């Protein structure tokens, strides 16, 4: 039974009865709006407290599960992030923390009606997944993104015990893929699944079990399989699930007879609701035409695992007039991006990933030419992640003039410290153009050879920037000070391999308590500087990560974040909490 609050103030002067106010506030969707209304008065605070059904926690150490459950007694859905983002680049050592199990133990007592759990960069063991499956009888949705510590045995527990499961979304995790038999653990009476994603598992799956599961679940809207699923098997799955809205295919390179190819094309043609397509592992050009009939209503194409060439991409894009999001590998080259500019006028998001970021002598890739071509043909573009091997200040200025509404601009020139390859100037004016022109900018990632001038531009013009990522940039402490003094909405600052020292670190003394986190690694910060920060701001958690030997002088990796829970209790020996 749902908890009900006692009327703490029976003489309340609130315009609405408590139940009505709770219902109204419960209709708010935005996290920021919910937080804002809770600050209006005590009545609204209490009403929002009891009406809240979902919660997002951007850092699992910013609050404890005990504090969370006291603040919000009726939560049904929890989204929780763990390790710092730079763990994606192997900068956070294994066994750093962010284990979900202590949260589950508290939730089992306080939130036994929990329905959804969405985790990112958390450590999740098989024991935790089994615990989750046994202690939450109404559990419906599990999403694990970039998590580690578990195996397919844990997935088997979820499949076996979660009778009401509607979503199982497993993305880019460090999972031990023991075998594909976990799919056979779903009971034969199980029919409720709406989302199934196991695209990044490596081993063969039990296809008979998968086919039976898909055929039973008539409400299935999202299906993303791994590369072990063949084209022939994919055709059989599509026959059972023409209602799909999102599809991630398996391998796209098997030999098919003419009849099999025709049957696959027909299966795709019958998928009238398809709006998202991904997968296409090791795509073979001869079979791409089977997709054409299903492309009419596509709004999102994710080819981040399909190294297509420019001609194959261009032929496909002709059939995608409604495309809004596109992820590709740089094998499409500039010619492929020219096709994007020609055929995708509604495009809002573009991500270009490197096929091999560590191959110095690689021949293919994208340049400033492709970037400009996209900006000329896609005026709605507002989100870009662009890995390239060369860039110019003039090109970036042209891109943002063509697309001034960027909210996310992440330019990654893959050679650290690279200058404008035509003029040999620093790339300061490129990012100056970005922050001067794109007044809605919220997230910015810097690359190339940059002096303090870039940071002066960011501090002066980047008034809406919330997340800034910096690597191999800057001239002195002054650069970081400009950002900390000039960006009022800054919430996350990620810095690596920059000449920023104690003065830069301490420039944020008045800022860090209003931010979510600061990460600094391989900079010039010393232990004395970090200790002074911790002394001046005791409400901050200040951690130093030293993996090898303890250095009394240098603070190799510094992680600073606000927390209402105090220092964490599970820090490993290589994490020093100040």
From TrEMBL:
Main location: nucleus
GO cellular component terms, A-Z: nucleus; SCF ubiquitin ligase complex
One of the GO BP terms on file: pollen maturation
Protein name from the UniProt record: Protein TRANSPORT INHIBITOR RESPONSE 1
Subcellular locations according to the entry: Nucleus
MF (Gene Ontology): auxin binding
Annotated keywords: Auxin signaling pathway, Developmental protein, Nucleus, Ubl conjugation pathway
Pathway assigned to this chain's UniProt record: Protein modification; protein ubiquitination
Domain annotation COI1 F-box: ranges: 14-53
SUPFAM superfamilies for this protein: RNI-like
Keyword Nucleus: yes
Keyword Nucleus: yes
Domain Transport inhibitor response: 73-119
């Amino acid at each position: 039974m749902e908890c009900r609050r006692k009327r703490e103030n029976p003489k309340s002067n609130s315009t609405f009865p408590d139940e009505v106010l709770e219902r109204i506030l419960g209709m708010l969707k935005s996290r920021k709006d919910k937080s804002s209304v809770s600050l209006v008065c005590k009545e609204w605070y209490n009403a929002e407290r009891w009406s809240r059904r979902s919660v997002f926690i951007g850092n699992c150490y910013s609050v404890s599960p005990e504090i969370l459950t006291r603040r919000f007694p009726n939560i049904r859905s929890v989204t929780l992030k763990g390790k710092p983002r730079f763990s994606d680049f192997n900068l956070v050592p294994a066994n750093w923390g962010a284990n979900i199990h202590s949260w589950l133990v508290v939730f089992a007592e306080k939130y036994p009606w929990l329905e959804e759990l969405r985790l990112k960069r958390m450590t999740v063991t098989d024991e935790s997944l089994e615990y989750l499956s046994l202690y939450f009888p109404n559990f419906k949705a599990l999403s694990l993104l970039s998590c580690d510590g578990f195996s397919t045995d844990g997935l088997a527990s979820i499949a076996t015990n979660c009778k009401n499961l509607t979503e199982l979304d497993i993305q880019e995790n460090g999972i031990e893929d023991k075998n594909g038999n976990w799919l056979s653990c779903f009971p034969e009476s199980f029919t409720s699944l709406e989302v199934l994603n196991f695209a990044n598992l490596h081993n063969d799956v039990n296809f008979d079990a998968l086919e039976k599961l898909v055929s039973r679940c008539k409400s299935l809207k999202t299906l993303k399989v791994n590369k072990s699923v063949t084209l022939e098997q994919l055709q059989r799955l599509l026959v059972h699930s023409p209602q799909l809205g999102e599809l991630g295919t398996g391998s796209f390179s098997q030999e098919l007879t003419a009849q099999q190819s025709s049957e696959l094309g027909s299966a795709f043609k019958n998928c009238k609701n398809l709006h998202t397509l991904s997968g296409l592992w090791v795509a073979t050009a001869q079979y791409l035409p089977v997709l054409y009939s299903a492309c009419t209503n596509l709004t999102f194409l994710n080819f981040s695992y399909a190294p297509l060439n420019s001609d194959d991409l261009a032929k496909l894009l002709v059939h995608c007039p409604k495309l809004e999001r596109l992820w590709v590998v740089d094998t499409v080259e500039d010619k492929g991006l020219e096709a994007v500019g020609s055929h995708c006028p509604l495009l809002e998001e573009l991500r270009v990933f490197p096929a091999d970021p560590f191959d110095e002598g690689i021949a293919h890739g994208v340049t400033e030419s492709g970037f400009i071509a996209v900006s000329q043909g896609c005026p709605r573009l507002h989100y870009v992640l662009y890995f390239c091997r060369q860039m110019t200040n003039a090109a970036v200025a042209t891109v943002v003039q063509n697309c001034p509404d960027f909210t996310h601009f992440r330019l990654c020139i893959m050679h650290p410290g690279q200058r404008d390859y035509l003029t040999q100037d620093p790339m300061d004016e490129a990012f100056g153009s970005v922050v001067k022109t794109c007044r809605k900018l919220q997230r910015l990632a810097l690359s190339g050879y940059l002096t303090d001038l870039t940071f002066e531009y960011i501090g002066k013009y980047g008034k809406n920037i919330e997340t800034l990522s910096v690597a191999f940039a800057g001239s002195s402490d002054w650069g970081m000070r400009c950002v900390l003094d000039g960006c009022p909405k800054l919430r996350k600052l990620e810095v690596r391999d920059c000449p920023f020292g104690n003065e830069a670190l301490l420039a944020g003394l008045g800022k860090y308590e209003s931010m979510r986190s600061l990460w600094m690694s391989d900079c010039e910060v010393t232990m004395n500087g970090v200790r002074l920060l911790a002394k001046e701001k005791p409400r901050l958690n200040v951690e130093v990560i030293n993996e090898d030997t303890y250095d009394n002088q240098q603070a190799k990796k510094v992680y600073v974040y606000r927390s209402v829970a105090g220092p964490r209790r599970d820090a490993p020996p290589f994490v020093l909490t100040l």
